[in-house]
Design goal:
Length: about 200
């Protein structure tokens, strides 16, 4: 491995609110049942959000691996938009402003994008302190934020799918530390499905 670094990102399993297309930020909803799978990754520790949906997903994918939870790795707090759908909010003027400019407009009683960015980056800097492999089970917004940094592409152009392993690599830890673009990225489906 030497001086190389790889960061693996996995979005939590789907929840009822995800299926209903609701904004689920700090609401602590469990995941829908997942089958245990063999994933082509063997971390010694998994990092992620302290919310149930991330902890439960990590326990399913990596049942024998210690999980280190951080509130700083939570999804954006959607404030008054939390647990509501587009259909419920589409006539709200502030919601429409936020949809058009989410990096500048803050949901009422929610979290600004700059505060969200600062806390996620703080957590990442505390966890990633040297070369090696790091595995995270986090939220869609957190993955998009990190991919924005790793790929140097606009946040709004990125997606974070469920049941997908994103792996970003740099040949030297120093290039990651300097904020340079990753030298390789892979996107691999995780073959886990909900129990029906």
């Amino acid at each position: 491995m030497g001086d190389a670094i790889t960061i693996h990102l996995i979005r939590h399993g789907k929840t009822k609110a995800n299926m209903e297309r609701k904004y689920i930020g700090h609401s602590d909803e469990p995941i829908l049942p997942l089958r245990q799978v063999d994933i082509a990754l063997q971390p010694s520790v998994v990092y992620g959000s302290d919310l149930k949906r991330c902890q439960q997903t990590a326990a399913c994918y990596f049942p024998q691996v210690p999980y280190r939870a951080s509130a700083d790795l939570r999804e954006l707090h959607f404030g008054q938009f939390e647990m509501k759908t587009y259909e419920e909010l589409k006539d709200d003027l502030i919601y429409r402003e936020w949809i058009n400019n989410p990096l500048q407009v803050t949901p009422p009683n929610g979290e600004s994008f700059s505060d969200f960015t600062a806390r996620v980056e703080r957590a990442i800097e505390q966890i990633i302190t040297g070369p090696g492999d790091y595995t995270f089970v986090v939220h869609g917004g957190v993955i998009r934020l990190l991919l924005e940094r790793f790929l140097q592409q606009p946040f709004n152009s990125l997606q974070a799918k469920h049941d997908t392993l994103y792996s970003c690599s740099w040949s030297h830890f120093s290039t990651w530390k300097e904020g340079k673009r990753c030298t390789s990225i892979s996107e691999v489906p995780i073959m886990a499905s909900e129990i029906t």
